[in-house]
């Protein structure tokens, strides 16, 4: 059910929706919806998989207003955690939330991609409900078209692969494309699959942007081959 909007404010609300849906370079999901501890089963898996590292370096890509970062902090009390989001207002909200925590291991950056991040640095990267576009599912679109292009998805994934240390973990949940269709996937092994009830209803498209009928893709966690330092 949509929230009630007074008649006088509907033109403004419609304009804001159009602005959000307008393609912006580097932006995938136009909606910043998030929740605290949204994927507990995935975070728990990551905590167990990284238990041997006392202070694993973590990246939350598309961190929105910080719920994911602060949920990770509960499981990784000593980890340096970095949040990146394309929306500067979201980053401002993250910084405001972090004030008073006396936690200098949290950092936030407004950026459209991981281009400025160091190579081979992170032990885990979380990109959850980011590499997708909600309007594709709402419209039941048969082509991803200009809203989501496979080339942009693959470019983002290539960036994650570059930033991950050997043996590092990549978590991709709720995407409109399959990680296995990317060239980068050849350097990874799948280590975590979601159950059907842990998946969103977002549509799945192939490399050419064509709808995959009844498409479901359950692998969500991947380990980069190699031995970490």
TrEMBL record:
Entry's Gene Ontology molecular function annotations: methyltransferase activity
InterPro entries assigned: SAM-dependent_MTases_sf
GO BP, sorted A to Z: methylation
Organism taxonomic ancestry: Bacteria, Pseudomonadati, Pseudomonadota, Alphaproteobacteria, Acetobacterales
Domain of life: Bacteria
Signal peptide annotation: none
Nucleus found in the keyword field: no
SUPFAM superfamilies linked to this entry: S-adenosyl-L-methionine-dependent methyltransferases
Keywords tagged on the record: Methyltransferase, Transferase
Protein name as annotated: Methyltransferase domain-containing protein
